[in-house]
Structures are given as C-alpha cells and as structure tokens.
Write a structure and sequence with these properties.
Largest sheet of chain B: none
Radius of gyration of chain B: 19 Å
Distance between the termini of chain B: 41 Å
Helix content of chain A: over 70%
Distance between the termini of chain A: 38 Å
Largest interface: A-B, 39 and 40 residues
Number of helices of chain A: 10
Number of strands of chain B: 0
Helix content of chain B: over 70%
Shape of chain B: elongated
Order of helices and strands of chain A: HHHHHHHHHH
Structural class of chain A: mainly alpha
Number of strands of chain A: 0
Strand content of chain B: under 5%
Oligomer: heterodimer
Order of helices and strands of chain B: HHHHHHHHHHHH
Shape of chain A: globular
Structural class of chain B: mainly alpha
Largest sheet of chain A: none
Strand content of chain A: under 5%
Chain lengths: 286, 272
C-alpha cells in the first residue's frame, strides 16, 4: 500500500490545523472577552514601558525616538511571545490536558504541517494586538508613524523572514520540550530569554559584550531594526547605525536562514527521540 | 481513642498543606529554576531599559525590588488563585471537601508554604539582581522592610485565598484569567516603577492590590529618594485594613463554595 499517496493533501492539512488552532485558542469565551484578553496584555506591557520612559526622562526633548523604539518593539514582540510561548503551551495542552496529540500524530498527514498551522494561528492572534498597540501609540503618544509614509515592502519582507524563523524555532523548541513534564513553564522561559536578546525594548549594545555578540546572531534584532526603520523612517532610533536598510534586511535573511536550518535539524532529532521514547502520548498529570 | 481536637486537626492540616510547597516544590528542580530565572530575566530586561534611558543608578533598584516581588505575585496567582482549579482537575478537591477539616486550614497551609517557597526565589532574584547591577539599600531600612514585607504578604495571600474560591466558578477560562492578571497588575502595582508615576487616579485604583502599597512602602524605606505615593504610615494602615477585608471576603467566599459543593455536587467535581 502506498501510504504516502493516502496522506491528506498538504493544503488541506494546514488549513484544518489552522482552523483547529483557532477554535482551541478562542472558543473558551465570548468573542468580545477574547478580543479584550488578546489586547490587554500587550497594551499593558507597552504602558509599563511608557510610564518608565515618562518617569525617567520627564519627556524632555530629544528622547522621543526612544519612546517610539519602546512602543514598536513591544507591539511586534507579541508575535514572538505568541508564536513561541503560546504555541508551545498549546501543544503541551494538546498532549497533557486534552490528550489528543497522539491521535494527530498518527493521522494521515505530515506532523510538521499540523505544527505550522497551529503556529500560524498564534501569529495571527498576535497581529490584532500589534495593530492596536501601534494605533494607540500613534494616536495617544503622537509617535511619528504615518501610514502613508511607511515602507511597506521593507515591513512585509522583514516580517515574512522573521515569522519563518519564529515558526521554525517554535516548532523545534516545542517538539524538544515534549521530553519535559512541565513544558509550559519552559515555553515562557524560552520566550523570555529571546526577549532579552531581541532588542525589543532596549538596544542590544546595552548588553554585556559576549551577550551582545550572541544577540547579534539573532534574526530578531535585525527584524526589530527593519520594522522600526520601515515604520519610523529617519526618526527611528537605530541599533545598527552603520548598516543600510538593505544590509539590515540582508543580515535578517542570513540569520533567519541559519535559524531555520538549525531548527530543522533540531526538530528532526527531537521528533525521532519523541517517537523512540514514547513522548508523544506521555501522561503529564496536567 | 479520643478523636483529635479541632485545633489540632486545623494545625496539622496547615502543616500538611504547607509541606508540599516547602519541601515538595524544591524537589522539582525545573520549577526552582523556572521560578527564579523567569522573574530574574524580566527584571534584567527592565534594568536595561532604565540604563538605555540614561537613568541614575539609584533608579535601577526600583526594577530589581519590583521584579523580585513579582515572584510573590506569580505564586499567589498560579499557586493560590488557580490552585483549587488544578486540585479539582486532579480529583483532590472532592477529597478536601469530604475530609474532616476546613478549607480555611488548607488555604492557610498553601499560603504559608507559598510564602516560604517564593521567599527563596525572591531572595535569589534580589541578591543576583543587586550584585549584577551594583544596587545598595539603606541599612536602617532593612528591619522596617521585613515588617512591611510580612504585612504585605499577609494581605496579598488573603487576596489569593479569596481568588482561589472565585476561580472555582470557571473552567477553561482560569488559565487565561490568571494570564490576564499578569502585565495589567504589573502596570497598576508599579512593579517596575514608583507607583507615583502612575498619577493619583490610577495609583489609587492600583492600591486595591496589597502589592502596590507594600512595594511602595518597602521602596520608601529601602531606597531613599523614592518618589512618595502616600506616607508609609498610611500605607501600613491601608495594608492592615486590606488584610482584614480580604480575609473576611475569603472566608465568606469559602462558605459559599462549600454550601454549593454540598448542595449541587457540581462545583468541586472534576470537569474534564
């Protein structure tokens, strides 16, 4: 029997996974409550930084670019937080709480397509929160973001590269975490570590030398830089002032490609280990 | 054989429920690592924000103290407020209800154990954060700070006891509810900045949380020069009042839960 020929077509498998992910992540409450929940945390995170900024600087002249730096970084960080931590927790729930991961694994579809579909939903959830934080920031804090002057080509290219890297990292990290019984904690911890290295709320040059060097290999730092340049133009506070826009995008592409390659290798190894060690249907006493 | 007295049962229940918090939780190394490193990373990130803004070194203490106290709030949220929900899912809550003890004793045990459990994590965050960034504290303020911490924790865990019963009325929402009480609470309580920076109205709203007033008072005694929200003496009075109010509300909420559990036989049964 040609089992490969009987697999669900990739497009349908991905679409079903997206639909399932959306249902699981949103049907625990009413739509209005879900919307409020989705924007409450990122908006609060942004406001914490705005208050710190106002407290330290007294909004004195010349510090405005750093406010825009903080708000844009927090807004776009939501993609990584949802895409990595939210996704890993979702899969841990599928295994430990709903006990359905084993059925998905043996279903006639590629497992990584299921994971990518679930991850894509997390990114879509984050998009709404990002848009709202940016809108509130622009209107209430007078950030220099003009929708007519945004470099959309740069923004879209940077986001696509970063999303591919985030999804690949999240997929590999999540399957690796199947070995842990309390993987939900490590999901948050992984995102928090990336947060420190990403340049989301402070330039990576503030970090100690060796840590800054590690951060410079992360696609997230170049993504944040590209996004800020695309949104704010000349008024963006630059982490890499010596690099042109194209050079930043180029480095983003290179580091994203490296991240995806490493993530793929890690995924293959973790997937084999999960099957051999019986981790897919492990009881975790959720 | 005479049955043990009610007081002895109460005390033994408190100790029995505190035991897994103090001893059991430390056996799980992954939890110890997570509960220490997670708030530490958040604290470090905020300190770097202060540094990037060119803030004076004295300001870094705001972030370190707040980040350390965050471990207590996380403990109240996940190991007090959401705990009865987990116990229900594991089938323990039914046993608690029918056992010859009170839920109050169980909650007090959870709270005492949680304070000690988190205390070690808080100490680790404080020591590592303060050493990394060279933060010093006022020597004479140490003893008052310990007293303020004790009062704050008593009020905070009474709030946790109240939330533990309220969370029982929810199912899958509990996880999201607890999540939704993270960053918004960090904002309203001034975890990473002096609460005065929020302004009068927001600061007053945030003062409903014992964390807000306790943290502000501790900062005032440990970090001289902290912008004062209200005088420490008033904060002590407000915390004492909160302790009483939240304890009474928790007691009332527990009674409601017990009555509903026995009458409807639904609230404490496993839902999955």
């Amino acid at each position: 029997v040609d089992l490969a020929a009987r697999l669900v077509p990739p497009g349908r498998a991905f679409a079903d996974s997206v639909r399932l992910g959306w249902e699981v992540s949103s049907n625990w409450t009413q739509p209005l409550v879900f919307i409020i929940y989705s924007i409450l945390r990122p908006l609060s995170s942004a406001l914490i930084l705005v208050v710190i900024y106002a407290f330290v600087t007294g909004r004195r002249g010349g510090t405005g670019p750093y406010l825009a730096f903080l708000v844009t970084g927090t807004a776009f960080w939501g993609f990584v937080n949802s895409g990595l931590a939210g996704f890993a927790i979702g899969i841990a729930e599928d295994r430990g709480r709903f006990r359905m991961l084993k059925y998905i694994y043996i279903a006639p579809q590629r497992f990584h397509l299921f994971l990518l579909g679930r991850g894509a939903v997390q990114l879509a959830n984050a998009a709404a929160a990002t848009a709202i934080v940016l809108t509130v920031g622009t209107l209430a804090l007078h950030l220099p973001i003009n929708p007519l002057r945004v470099n959309y080509a740069q923004l879209v290219a940077a986001c696509l590269l970063a999303f591919a890297a985030v999804l690949a990292t999240a997929t590999a990290y999540t399957v690796t975490l199947l070995a842990a019984r309390d993987s939900y904690s490590y999901a948050d911890l992984g995102a928090q570590m990336l947060f420190v290295l990403s340049g989301a709320i402070f330039p990576i040059s503030v970090l100690p030398g060796p840590v800054a060097a590690v951060a410079a290999w992360s696609p997230l730092a170049y993504w944040m830089e590209s996004v800020r340049r695309a949104l704010l133009g000349d008024q963006a506070l630059r982490m890499f002032p010596h690099l042109s826009d194209a050079a930043v995008l180029e480095r983003l592409g290179l580091t994203a490609a490296l991240t995806i390659t490493l993530a793929w290798l890690l995924y293959r190894w973790a997937d084999r280990r999960a099957r051999r060690s019986g981790l897919i249907d492990m009881e975790t006493n959720w | 054989m005479n049955p043990p007295s009610a007081g002895r049962v109460f005390l033994k229940t408190v100790l029995a429920r505190a035991y897994p918090r103090v001893v059991g939780a430390n056996r799980r190394r992954s939890w110890v690592i997570f509960e220490t490193v997670f708030p530490l990373l958040g604290t470090i990130a905020m300190v770097y924000v202060y540094q990037a803004l060119g803030a004076p070194r004295a300001f870094l203490g705001f972030a370190v103290l707040g980040g350390a106290m965050l471990a207590f709030w996380n403990n109240v949220l996940w190991f007090m407020a959401a705990q009865f929900h987990w116990e229900r899912d594991n089938g323990n809550l039914e046993i608690f209800i029918v056992s010859p003890t009170t839920l109050v004793a169980i909650l007090i045990g959870m709270a005492l154990g949680g304070m000690l459990q988190s205390g070690t994590r808080v100490a680790a965050v404080l020591i590592i954060g303060s050493t990394l960034f060279g933060i010093s504290y006022s020597g004479p303020g140490m003893l008052p700070a310990v007293g303020l911490l004790a009062l704050t924790l008593a009020a905070l865990y009474c709030l946790g006891m109240m939330l533990a019963t309220l969370f029982l009325f929810y199912g899958r929402e509990v996880w999201h509810l607890a999540n939704a009480m993270q960053e918004p609470v960090q904002l309203l309580s001034g975890t990473f900045f002096p609460v005065r920076a929020l302004g009068g109205y927001l600061g007053a709203a945030g003062s409903l949380l014992p964390l807000t007033l306790g943290l502000d008072a501790i900062r005032q005694v440990l970090l001289p020069g902290t912008p004062q929200f209200i005088p420490v003496a008033w904060e002590v009075l407000a915390l004492a009042a909160q302790l009483v109010v939240y304890a009474v509300l928790a007691q009332w909420a527990l009674r409601v839960v017990e009555v509903r559990a026995r009458r409807d036989a639904k609230l404490v049964t496993r839902w999955t």
